[in-house]
Amino acid sequence: MPISIKNVLTTIKNAAEDLTTLDVVTLSGEIQISSAVGPNGTLNLKELYKTIETNAKTNANLDVVAFTHIDFDCDAVNFVKTGASEGEAPLLAAHNQMVKTSQETRAGVVKMIKDSIGI
C-alpha cells in the first residue's frame, strides 16, 4: 500500500492538534456495564473502555465534577461543579493531580520530539 503525502500530512496535523491541547474531565456517578471480562475472568481494559464509552450514552448517571481545557498558548478553561460535596473533595484533588501529571507528560513528549529531530 503506497503512502500518500495527504495521509502523512493529515497524521502530522492530527498529532499536532493533540499535542497542542489538554483536556481532563473528572466524572462521578454510575455506569452499568455487563461485559469487558475476558477469558478466565480477567479484565480486558481496552474492552472495558469501549464498553464504558458505549454504555455511558444510555446506561449512565454521571456528573461532571471538574473539567479543565488548556490550549498550547496557555489559554485555559477550568470548571468545577457548583456545590461540590465534601465527599467529592478527593475527586477534585485527583483531578488537579491529573492536570499536573498530564502537563508534565505533555512537556516530556514535546521535549522528546524536539530532541529526536534536533531542535
What does it look like?
This protein is an alpha+beta fold and 119 residues long. It has one domain. Helices cover 47% and strands 24% of the residues. The mean pLDDT is 81.
Name a few traits of the molecule.
24% strand; alpha+beta; 3 helices; 119 residues; extended; 3 strands
> Strand count, sense and closure of the main sheet?
3 strands, antiparallel
Helix and strand element order: HEHEEH
Write out the strand line-up for the largest beta sheet, numbering strands in chain order: 1-2-3
Oligomer type: single chain
Q: What is the total number of structural domains?
A: 1
Helix content: 40-55%
- Rg for CA atoms: 19 Å
Q: Name the average pLDDT.
A: 81
Number of helices: 3
Pick out the low-confidence regions. Answer: none
3D shape: extended
Task: Report a brief summary of the structure.
It is built from three helices and three strands; from the N terminus they run H-E-H-E-E-H. The chain has 119 residues and is α+β, with helices and mostly antiparallel strands. Strands 1-2-3 form a three-stranded antiparallel β-sheet.
Give a topology summary.
Elements: H1 5-20, E1 21-31, H2 45-55, E2 60-71, E3 76-80, H3 89-117
Antiparallel strand pairs: 1-2, 2-3
